[in-house]
UniProtKB/TrEMBL annotation:
Domain of life of the native organism: Bacteria
Gene3D superfamilies the UniProt entry points to: Glycosidases (3.20.20.80)
Keyword check for Acyltransferase: no
This protein's name: Glycoside hydrolase family 1 protein
GO molecular function: hydrolase activity, acting on glycosyl bonds
Pfam families: Glyco_hydro_1
Keywords: Glycosidase, Hydrolase
EC number(s) recorded for this UniProt protein: 3.2.1.-
Class of enzymatic activity (EC top level): hydrolase
Length: 464
């Protein structure tokens, strides 16, 4: 059976500046550059972001390969730590302006729509050391000035902007579960970081509407939405999944789309005495500056059960896990390399949720993908990686997405993570996600089998 998508559907792939560019000519270190300098052992085979996939030097050739893979849209990001010369005075770095201008022009010349995100976990480390990073509203102020520079420089040609990628990962990774620098556990700070990230997003949206130079321009946020399925229908498990959803999904989604944090969550955080510091004026800014559209990063669902910890047995001041515990479903289909469950039907449920509870606001899949280790295992005699598992993964997710669209979901595109195998945080290069393979030693790049599949999909807007 053939499934038809709209002719103007965006067939894209997503990546980010810090994961592709390399540190060439970059004046400031972001938190991952710094983490690598200090703790190279955190990184797979001790390989960090210094070269990444060499996009800084190779961008013309990389964009040519992306075009060959059929992409008509690419979501990437500008690095704050590259664009801004003086982080306090918020002055522009001339080389970075030249670089990002050339990248945007190259995408456009190749018929690829550049969708630009402003913050992909990559806070300049100096702002963390000097001000405590996102815990401090001074950093919010500096971020909004950086965002303004981006809009002033590039909004004549870029129509699609995003304020943050997965802000909940900044909160969880940096302040609760120690998988991103600064690797601390502090529930109260985590809650304040969540609020400050949302405030930064709303203020950047307000600024965008003042200075944007493009009548077609739109601004949104990219959220990782992992619905939580309860372990059973018993009240404790249902309540656990409900809280996990409030914390992981609704906090940013409600604030970004509806302009209000979920009341139930605010009440719980207030009762637990970890509620953020806010002012009436800030809350008004959040209310008035909601998104035009947003991106959904989807990899796997979450499964939640009643909490393992009792309220008084927490070893730290506060953890969301006071209210829920994650669990893995016995017998679930897994991507074992990454340890993530494969359950494409969730994408349909996300679409329904947006349609029914968020006013059917326009959205797109801003990341979805399958990270697999040692892809050389799949090398064909012709030197091409035969990643049939990735083709199957894409097909299954598109099946459920198509079903939702046919039922009225307002989804305008699908972006695979990622165009070219890239660096990622602690994973470094262990798991590969690309349509195009990268040899990390020679920087040689080559289309995988999935790239030809993707091209056919994008050219025909049909899935067989
Ligand atoms: C998302 C991030 C990406 C990317 C992806 C894959 O959460 O937005 O930056 O890294 O996950 O994750 P990983 O590379 O850790 O397997």
């Amino acid at each position: 059976m053939k499934l038809e998508f709209l002719k103007d559907f965006l067939w894209g792939a997503a990546t980010s500046g810090p994961q592709t560019e390399g540190r060439f000519k970059k004046k400031h270190a972001n938190i991952f550059d710094y983490d690598f300098e200090k703790f190279p052992e955190h990184f797979w085979h001790g390989i960090g972001p210094d070269t990444a996939s060499n996009f800084y030097n190779d961008f013309r050739e990389d964009i040519r390969l992306m075009k060959e893979a059929g992409l008509n849209s690419v979501r990437t990001s500008i690095q704050w730590s590259r664009l801004i010369d003086d982080l306090e005075e918020v002055t522009l770095n001339a080389d970075a302006v030249r670089f990002y201008n050339a990248v945007i022009d190259e995408f456009l010349a190749n018929g690829i729509r550049p969708m630009i995100n402003l913050h992909h976990f990559d806070l300049p480390v100096e702002l963390l050391h000097k001000y405590g990073g996102w815990t401090n509203k001074k950093v919010v102020e500096l971020y909004v000035k950086y965002a303004e520079k981006c809009f002033e420089c590039f909004s004549d040609r870029v129509t699609d902007w995003f304020t943050h990628n997965e802000p909940m990962v900044v909160v969880d990774g940096g302040y609760l579960y120690q998988f991103h620098y600064p690797d601390i556990v502090d529930g109260k700070l985590a809650v304040q970081v969540a609020y400050n990230l949302q405030l930064a997003s709303s203020l950047a949206i307000q600024k965008f509407r003042e200075v944007n130079r493009n009548p077609e321009g739109k601004i949104g946020i990219v959220l990782n939405l992992c619905p939580n399925y309860p372990a059973s229908s018993e009240a404790e498990d249902v309540a656990a999944a409900h809280f996990a959803d409030l914390w992981q999904n609704q906090l940013f989604m409600d604030a970004s789309v509806k302009g209000e944090f979920p009341h139930e969550l605010v009440e719980i955080l207030t009762k637990d005495e970890v509620i953020w510091e806010s002012t009436a004026e800030e809350l008004q800014i959040i209310r008035e500056n909601t998104v035009d559209n947003f991106g959904v990063n989807f990899y796997h669902p979450n499964r939640a059960q009643r909490p393992y910890y009792s309220s008084d047995s927490l070893a730290v001041d506060w953890l969301p896990n006071k209210y829920f515990d994650d669990y893995s479903l016995h017998g679930a289909r897994m991507n074992v390399d990454k340890g993530w469950e494969i359950y494409p039907q969730t994408l349909y449920e996300i679409a329904k949720n947006i349609q029914e509870n968020y006013g059917n606001i326009p959205w797109y899949v801003s990341e979805c993908g399958m990270g697999v280790s040692c892809e050389e295992r799949y090398l064909g005699d012709d030197g091409e990686i035969k990643d049939d598992f990735r083709i199957q993964f894409i097909t299954e997710h598109l099946y459920w997405l198509h079903k939702a669209i046919a039922e009225g979901a307002n989804c305008f595109g699908f972006h695979l993570w990622t165009p070219i195998d890239c660096f990622s945080w602690r994973n470094s290069y262990r798991n590969r996600y690309g349509l195009i393979s990268l040899n990390v030693h020679t920087q040689e790049k080559r289309l995988k089998k999935s790239a030809y599949f993707f091209k056919e999909l994008a050219d025909s807007s049909q899935l067989e």
